[in-house]
Amino acid sequence: MQDNNSLKEKVELTPHSPGVYLMKDAAGNIIYIGKANDLKSRVSSYFTGKDIRPMAPFLLSRINDI
Question: Would you call 46 exposed, middle or buried from its count of C-beta atoms within 10 A (0-12, 13-18, 19+)?
Answer without folding.
Answer: buried
